[in-house]
Amino acid sequence: MSSPQIEIQIIAAVVAMACAIPGVFLVLRKMALISDAISHSILPGIVIGFFITQDLNSPLLILFAAFVGVLTVVLVEYIQKTGLVKEDTAIGLVFPALFSIGVIMISKNAGDVHLDVDAVLLGELAFAPFDSMMIDGTDWGPKSLWIMGSILIVIISLLLLFFKELKVSTFDAGLSASLGISPVVIHYGLMSVSSITVVGAFDAVGAILVVALMIAPAATAYLLTEDLKRMIVLSIFFGVLAAISGYWFANWLDASISGSIATTLGIIFLIVYLFAPKKGLISVLYRQKQQQIEVSLITFLLHLNRHDEKRERHINHLREHIDWQEAKAQKVLNLALKNNLVEIENDIVFLTEKGLTFTEKSLAYIIENKHEKIDSMKDDFFLFRG
Amino acid sequence: MGEKIAVKVDDLTVAYNYKPVLWDIDLTVPEGVLMAIVGPNGAGKSTLIKAILGIIKPIAGSISIFGEPYAKQRKMVAYVPQKGSVDWDFPTTAFDVVLMGTYGSLGWIKRPGAKEKKIALESMEKVGMLSYRNRQISQLSGGQQQRVFLARALAQDASIYFMDEPFQGVDATTEIAIINILKELRKTGKTVIVVHHDLQTVPEYFDWVTFLNVKRIATGPVKEIFNDDNLTKTYGINYKVAVNK
């Protein structure tokens, strides 16, 4: 690996980490679209900032553009508060307006500005290593790495300091307010951090990838864990994984690095969406199928419980009586046998002690719908895992 | 009943988009009562609680908790929002939600330690949810979720408890369990204020009541003021018809 190759991967990984953390809270607050809005509407901020500073990496430009990002959120909320339109409509009204102002500014000043809309939207990671931080003639490495590294350190510090506050205000804003942990302060803090991250990252990776890096890792992690801390760690992991493997994907295809990273994020999400142990599609379908069998099992056990007559318990008769197909009847019977719920003597099916208790408990659960009744059975059966 | 005044509201007006939902409310709640706030849908019951707790900014009026502004008295007040106001798919456990009750006394930045965790566990024990402490909150039944909220309020160890429809969507057993805990709180001198929907249980559950319908109709002991006259004023229909339905 050449040194620019390594640098590109490090930059991509740092951007991914910086985006993943605010991304988790945006996803949990159901504000994913806001990151899209911010990433576009900062354009006029960048252009005006560039007119003033003549430097795309100036901290002043970043702050200026981030201010426009926060302004976007304020405008969206203001329009929403009028009660005339819903939130998604408000977002759809605000960011194209701000974005188009930026586009007009660029096209009016195309001669003097080394800035084009494509670069803002798509970025170009491949060039990032060659834009170095020069201090007194010494090369201190890529500028974007310095910028995103600083932003990442700020984000991690804020997360460690305000984790408790972020958690409670995201979960329950009302309680948070009554406790004196102002959800408004946290909200605008998060919006400011998101805006700064987007602005800092757009030059290296483009506005579209920023959105992907904020939302996809968090959405993927959400499918895998039920713990907020783990969700953050997993988001960072998926972001970095996509950044590195996306880079090699691009290398192999000889295509846009940003595009490849975003595609990789999509693929990772798809894989997790399909195979996640609890919330994944396959696991959900499997569980539904399993539940179907277990409902049949309980039906079968109830039938045995209600009928003492041998005629009703004969193995052949059961099939006809409950009116199941051979395969299904066999499956249910096997399941009952495997769990020691029934015994077969001379082709007559009997409920065992365990089978009897199970049936009674199931009945109580079905009638009263009380989870306490079946707590002890949850390990054995899918049906009762809620 | 203590002589102290727990909550005092003067001339409170709250509006959404310039339409008043609470109009010129005066309310005095003595310490140590278990009070229901009743009124029809849209009467501003939840809004009244939220305004007292500073969650909604009123356009006029003042509020005091034991004689001081709410901002000074936060630690004396616990709040149980409506169960439906939060996302129960949030990645966290029952214990973690209860632990949030201690965040107010911690203030900003400081993290919960052994002392806070002990308080949270004790509160879960009181509502019979200790064995569910590690369960993800989406896997709790409606009644269990409400108990978790109640435990969180207990963890706040307050003098005044505000609850927004704690009986909504819970089964009869949980309802009885909750009301018993609330009565227990009153016995220890706490003040409990509950937004309540079911008129029939008011005399059985509460000793004080406030009738509210944008304006305050009446406040006082249930025995004295829970009558057809006030009910008709509040609901605008004959009370007996409403109850017999």
UniProtKB/TrEMBL annotation, chain A:
Membrane-spanning segments: 6-28, 33-52, 58-78, 90-107, 144-163, 175-198, 204-224, 231-250, 256-276
GO CC entries: ATP-binding cassette (ABC) transporter complex
GO BP terms, alphabetized: response to zinc ion; transmembrane transport
UniProt keyword terms in alphabetical order: Cell membrane, Membrane, Transmembrane, Transmembrane helix, Transport
Domain of life of the native organism: Bacteria
CDD domains for this protein: TM_ABC_iron-siderophores_like
InterPro entries per the UniProt record, alphabetical: ABC_BtuC-like, ABC_TroCD
Places the protein is found: Cell membrane
Membrane topology: Multi-pass membrane protein
Pfam families xref list: ABC-3 (PF00950)
Family as reported in the entry's similarity comment: Belongs to the ABC-3 integral membrane protein family.
Name recorded for this polypeptide: Manganese/zinc/iron transport system permease protein
Organism field: Aequorivita viscosa
Automatic annotation (TrEMBL), chain B:
Stretches assigned to the ABC transporter domain: 7-239
Key word Nucleotide-binding present: yes
Gene3D superfamilies: P-loop containing nucleotide triphosphate hydrolases
Keyword ATP-binding: yes
Keyword set, alphabetical order: ATP-binding, Nucleotide-binding, Transport
InterPro entries to which the protein is assigned, alphabetical: AAA+_ATPase, ABC_transporter-like_ATP-bd, ABC_transporter-like_CS, Metal_Ion_Import_ABC, P-loop_NTPase
Pfam families the record matches: ABC_tran
SUPFAM superfamilies membership: P-loop containing nucleoside triphosphate hydrolases
Record GO terms (molecular function): ATP binding; ATP hydrolysis activity
Signal sequence extent: none
Family indicated by similarity: Belongs to the ABC transporter superfamily.
Name this polypeptide is given: Manganese/zinc/iron transport system ATP-binding protein
Origin species: Aequorivita viscosa
Lineage of producing organism: Bacteria, Pseudomonadati, Bacteroidota, Flavobacteriia, Flavobacteriales
